[in-house]
Structure prediction request, 963 residues.
Amino acid sequence: MMTTLKLVHLVLAFVAAPLLLGIINRTKALFAGRRGQPLLQAYYDIWKLLRKGAVYSRSTSWLFAAGPWIGFAAVVAAATLVPFGGARAPIAFPGDFLVLIYLLGLSRFLLVLSALDTGSSFEGMGASREVTFSALSEPALLIALAAVAKYTGCMSLSDMVVATVPHLWLCAGPIVVLVGLALLIVFLSENCRIPVDDPNTHLELTMIHEVMVLDHSGPDFGIILYSAALKMWLLGQVLVGLVVPAHTGVLWVDTLAVLLSMALLAVLVGIIESSMARVRLLHVPQLLVGATTLSILAVVLVLR
Amino acid sequence: MSLFLCGLAVLFIGGLASLLSGRRPALSSFLGAGGAVVGSLLAILPALAVLAGGRTESLRANWSVPLGSFLVQIDPLSAVFLLPILGLSALAAIYGAEYLWPYRQEKNLGVPWFFYNLLVVGMALVVAARNGLLFLVAWEVMSLASFFLVTFEYERQMVRQAGNIYLVAMHIGTAFLIVFFVLLGAHAGSLDFDTIPAVPSSLAGALFLLAVVGFGTKAGFMPLHVWLPHAHPAAPSHVSAVMSGVMIKTGIYGLVRTVTLIGPPEAWWCWVLIAIGVVSGILGVLFALAQHDLKRLLAYHSVENIGIITMGLGLGLLGVHIHSPTLAVLGFAGGLFHVINHAIFKGLLFLGAGAVLHGSGTGHLDLLGGLVKRMPWTAAAFLVGSIAICGIPPLNGFVSEFLIYLGAFKNGIVGGLDAAIPAVIVIGSLALIGGLALACFTKAFGTVFLGHPRSIHGQQAHEVGWAMKAAMAVLAASCVLGGALSPLVVRSAQTVVGEITSLPADAVETELATASSTLTHFVVVALLLATIAVLCLLARRRLLSGRSVRQAVTWDCGYAAPDCRMQYTATSFAQPLTDLFGFLLHTHKEVHPPKGVFPPDSALETETADVCEKYLYQPAFEAIRWSLGWFRWLQHGRLQVYVLYIALTLWILLIWKLM
Prediction:
């Protein structure tokens, strides 16, 4: 029963991940007074790309073609470590969040190398920004998790999420808020959303993630889009799991609560994107160092 | 034990025979490399036996030197260090045989082989010696042999300068070690390690600081690291691999041995080690990021990894101090496992860098590019090494960092404030180091192997031969195995961790069993990753079969004639980070911006000199030189006056004696 449930949750992540993009875009359209693209547009895009042929740059090597697929495998492997609401992840062990973070690191490593493989200055630029910002967001993420580990007394992500009970908000509310804010900034930065990166920009010079994948086409590009959606879902699950205490013990209520929280997170991202501009690239590090400071503050409060 | 000494003898005789047959390069290489391989393999067997649970072996022989005795012993701690030392040396010797071959016309190949084998003997004796004097002699043999290897291409001014810096740094370090052993000997009445009584805490503190400076100079602790970025690029690449992979670890060995000798650690020792680890780790990777030369970049990464190892040791000591077996075991197991892992992947990366030098003729990042097509084997090996050194799963580099992280997290949870603060500092630093290392190695791999060749060096590069490929392949496979077999490896650390921490055997066993079962889960995830990756690649092939797959130029905003010089360079790739940390790096920039409507050539040059060297050592050495300048009037080249000095000295001594 438990195993089936875990597998169902895993499949749910794979199926629902691109929906987040749809909700974000719909929210933005609502704010802008547009009708907006269909909710399922990301699915159509991925499906269309997977059915196409491909064009490769002459300067690329095997790494360019293999990188997105191995990177996708890393994200899928990471998905097995992420708990769904109050249910434990299919694989859970002490320190599993480290494996999760570093698996996403492997995916990033390969994507950056694929970008550099094209020899394009634009893609080099994007790759350079990606590694810069991710290097700064990693301490924020891990120190925030250290705070969570301290106040829940748990070493595995699944246990931490299970330990996030409503009572926690009463006795450690400020810490949960700080951790939540730090994780939200990391979530926005890792998924290349405003205020760090603008996924809708049309100028190569200002892009980060989108510019790294300029030369990818066909199925390779499709799998990159899907990996990005899945990664957003996973990091969103971590954020939601550590902030929203969704355990009533009734299975369908919990599941619905988690799905609703994820949708609300997407709406929140949409609101952020509609209400503020991308910060200047030079100021992004300040934002990320700010997130690290929030994490450190959370640790200080826990240790107090 | 006799097998171990036999192996060392084979190494030495091989080197000597190579030196004597230096006129015939083929024979000389064969004897030198063959002696190194056979000798190392012979000597590694007793170390393996000890690690497999065999008993500690020792041998004592008389040595007619005051306070000296030829006391050698292989206990688990020695064996843990002997394993990478001898293993990597054997592989690097196979590689070196091919690497040195092009020099056969202009150089006597017997000389480098003699010193190479002597270096291996020296390193092996350092970790096996159990007498202070024998230790110092072995230490000096190791330092001098490596000095002659660093200055192999002594015709180049840069290499001579590197050799001088290395020699001076090593002897300043050794000076501290001499004081260390004199103090220890004066306290114990003997220099044999097994007869040292309990050390009072004031003396122990002084000894610890002496050891940190003396051994830290060899290991490359910031700010004692200045010799590394000079010596590693100057030495032949297989020697750099051995020096960076294992020789600097003898410093770590010395420190761990010291801690076991001088008894229970105090709180400030742990703080010192953790602080050194954090500073070396973060500054090491930042300086690496700012480098333009592949081997210099790798040298700074050695500083970074020594920092990670030291953080592990610091946490382990803290665990011993606050009686937390979990932290003690995970810290030391992680630190020591990282010693072995770093030997593997840093050895691999230096051999890869050597292959790039060998194949293309330059190690300057901004002159290379696109080598993945011309040197596919080297590229694959370097990629494996890069993933491992960034601490990314599923390779070995991740596992040891994971253990240190795990120790820090567990300790942060259960420990009080005195344990939680260092734990959080270590967690934050490791996270930052991991991110920066990823930036650094995507830069290194990307500019050297990907894109278009940036100069003629890249265009004319050729793949290396089978000997060099074989050595790299074995190390790359070891990176994979180190990750896949990590649960077993961690379990086998029981004796050595027990020896260092002096915890009860069953406590150590329980902790390691827990760590091992955690790692089993990691291996499951890694296997899952490998399976999915294979499936994904098969799916890609199936998706693309029968569809149109075309070739075109890289997209450059519609510009149809992209040029290799339009690529991002290593400097530009690292620029956001080097600017962000500019307050630490003090990068010197020389900008000639384009001017006018039809601008002539414009240029940008950056150079990141070592801050410690520039602001600490150069002023210090200048001051010494200046103060010694006062004595110049004593020396003016007249022989008669010198004779007078001698006569005067003799007179003074005579009068003193008579009084």
In short: Residues 2-303 of chain A form one domain. The first helix of chain A runs from residue 2 to 32. Chain A touches chain B through 82 residues (CB under 8 Å).
